[in-house]
Structures are given as C-alpha cells and as structure tokens.
Records
---
Amino acid sequence: MSAILVQPERIVMPRGLVPRQPARTGRQDKVRVARTLMSAKSDHQQSASSRDARGPKGAAERKASPSLAKAQKKAATSAKGYNPVAPERVAEILKRLNQLYPDVTCALTHASAWELLVATILSAQSTDVNVNRVTPELFRKYPTVQAFAAITPEQLEPDVRSTGFFRNKSKSVVGAAKKIVAEFGGQVPDDIDKLLTLPGVARKTANVVLGTGFKKAEGVVVDTHVHRISRRLELTKEDDPQKIERDLMKIIPRDRWILFSHQIIWHGRKLCIARKPKCAECALENICHAADKTWSTVEIHKGAKA
Ligand code: SF4
C-alpha cells in the first residue's frame, strides 16, 4: 500500500503586511522606526567603507548620505510628527465607520422619548438585549408616564429585576416619571439642562434621549464602547467620560455626533470588543495603533489602550 503524502497548507500573506501579536506591554513602540534607522545605518556603513577605500573624498560623501538622512527624517516624523487627532485621520476614521455601519441607530426598543428614557436608565450595567426582553411587558403594564408616576419604586422592582441594580433603577424611573408629570407637563423635556435634573439621568442618558429621541446633537454619547474605542483609536487620552465627551466634541463635526456614537457602539459589539478585539477583521486596522490589538500591521503606541 503506498502512503499518500499531504503537504501542509501554506499561509500566504499579502505583500507588505507584517502581522504580529502585539505584547500587552506595548514595548513594540517605534519598533519600525528603530528598524528603519538600523537598516539605513548598516547600508550606510557598508557603502561608506567601500567609498573610504576609494580615497578621502569618501568621508565627505558619507556625510551627505541621503539614505541615512532620509531614514532619520522619517523616524523623527514618525515619532514626533504623528497627530492622532489630525483632521485627515479623524475624517478617515469617520469615512470607514460610514462604510462599515451606514444605517445604524439605537438598539433599545422604544416607541416614544419616555420609553427611550426608561430603557436607557435600565441599560446601565446591562445589555440592550436584556433590556429589550423586559420593556415590552413593562410598557404594556404601565403604558404612560403618568402610570409610572402613580406607582412606588417597590412596585416596579420585580418587573426590572433581571436588568440588575433593580432597586436604584426603579427609584430613578419612578422618580423621573413623577418629576416629568409634576414639572414638565407629562412630556420628556428636549433640553439637556432640564433632562439632567431628572433622577438617574447623567450626560450619557441625556445625550441618548436628545440624539435618538429628538434628533438633537447636544453632545456625544460616551458609554463603555465609546470610552474604550476612543482611547484605542487615540481620539482621547482621558479616562473620565465627561472629559472624553469634551475631546470628541472638539474633533468630530457636530452633524456626526449622533451617528458616530451609534457606529462606535455597534463596532464595540461586533469587532472592537473589550477582551479580544477582532483586529484581523477590522477595517480600521491599518490606522489603529492600539496597544491591546490582537493583530497588527502597523506600529503599536503603548499609550493607546482601553
Ligand atoms: S484594529 Fe482592533 S483595536 Fe483597533 S479599532 Fe479595530 S478591532 Fe479595535
């Protein structure tokens, strides 16, 4: 019986790509710069020694070596001249997000600004899927803001228990309903200052309600996905959501604030996930220098991480 030899399948990488697993330490920083300089220096030394052998004119030629000067200039530009929030880079990120997620919107099921407000309060420390499981029955049981205002937080608790932190959330929802009925004529206000007076409503919730419920761009929603991905993409160095929002508002055109948040939230769910981002599948890969990438064709910036 003759044995059949099966050749192992060869992985052929596209030209120009240098994939690698970046270490979490981010020590690869400037690795490409260093290599560029080293190879230019060794080229330069080789050609200098052959020129020196030809006579004293060689030293002057070496001084003016274009390859070393070019590499040094490239290294200096790469190390110092890189601006992660340059308008062209931000525009490129927005363009690619548009191609990836052209028509995305809020994933919380709702039929009114009030329902969106309730769903957003319930979504804290929970998933949209989890909230969407609870809200249809909740809104059947309490169909209006007045119905929520007429109950106690304790009555609401069993209905929202599965979303977690149900005592605080019940207090916030019932408290917000009572205030909206008492002070805003039963209508969710479309004003950020008024929204921020409601119990359980901070800037993130207010921006969701204004952006998705009223189509008003008053700020950028900074949830856990926007927080993580903005840092990975070096759009901010901040860790505090309010400061991140302030940074994003400076570099993203106002007419993109609402869509940008939705797109980044979808990107965070599908690819740029917290623990193991799917960098090999990501359309932003070659302009992303995040230190916690799982695959990279570009240099890593150790400060760029979630
Ligand atoms: S390349 Fe990786 S870390 Fe960067 S945005 Fe894409 S998935 Fe996130």
---
Amino acid sequence: MVNAAGQQVGGHGAPTVGFTAMADGTAEDYELLARYEEAELARVPDRILGWLRDMDDHTGYQITRLGHSLQAATRAYRAGEDEEVVVCALVHDIGDVLAPANHSQAAAAVVRPYVSERNHWVIQHHGVFQGLYWFQHIGADPNARDQWADHPWYQACADFCANYDQNSFDPDYPTESLDFFEPMVRRVFDPSRVKDPDISEPA
Ligand SMILES: [Fe+2]
Ligand SMILES: [Fe+2]
C-alpha cells in the first residue's frame, strides 16, 4: 500500500519496506529497517525491567525470582562493585524468562552487547559454577566448573556465585527495590553502549 506522500506503508499506516523477500530489498529499505532497529534498541531497558517484573513469581524458593535478583544486585552494590557488575547481578537469571533449560547462556546473550567480556563470561558460566553448592544432590559433579580452572575469569565467576548468587535466597535480607536499580539498568542498557551488533559472528 502507498500513502498520499508516495511512501510504502502497512495496514497500520507505518512506513514499510517494499519487498516481500529479503533478497529483493534495496539500500533504502534497509535504511528504513535500521531506523526501526534503533527504536527497538531504545526499548531494551524497558523490556529488561518488564522481564524482571515477570519474575515476581514463586518457583519453590522462600523468595521470588525477582526477589533473588534484587538481593544479588543489592549484595553486589553494597560490596562496592561497579555499576555494570551490579546490573549483571540483577539480570544474571533473566534467561529464565525465555530459556529455563539454559538460562545462563540466554542471560549472557542478552547482556553481551553491553558488558565486558569478563562480565559476559561470568553470567554465561554461573549456572555450572553454582553447581558447587547443589549438584551433589542430583547426582551431578559439583566440581564440573573445574574444567575452567585455568581460565582467567574462573575466580571472578566463583566469587560471583559465592558472594552474590548462592546466598541470595534470604527472605530476611534487606533488599533494595527494582526502582532503586532502574536508573542503573537504563544506563547499562543504553543503546549508545551497544558494541557487538548482529553483523559480527557470535562468540
Ligand atoms: Fe542462575
Ligand atoms: Fe541466581
């Protein structure tokens, strides 16, 4: 459909590309899509906050998954970690929303364009590192993480789990609210910080 200004628009009135198969697109089409992509990136902080609110449910622990996330972030904040680490603590389990069976990898993929390689690695591996505290109860190897014993970020991930993750299920811990962390989420997930667009190969 073409509007009065001669622009291609969809049924919703918003501009669209002219093609129906990507192979037929023009540079102009892809410039238009890039503008939509910019708007998508600007919505990421709100999406992150929305996913965290979705985790305000009970899954068997004494606190909700949102409560656990807030508690981990609060502990990181009070330990004097920098803002990126605090936000990583807040979102380290956010993969649960889309990928409960591999939540560590999913969360790591979400944060990867916005954080250091170290912080990405810590989130990506925290699920296996957490095994130290409970894998023995399910017949798995609690020391499975030692396959990365020589990795430069082994200790960072071990410390993250020991100090912020495994201990953050305490209903009596004075935890900060999501409102407290919201400005930090908006800063860390600001579109200006995206440094690894999809056009590069995944790690
Ligand atoms: Fe986790
Ligand atoms: Fe966790």
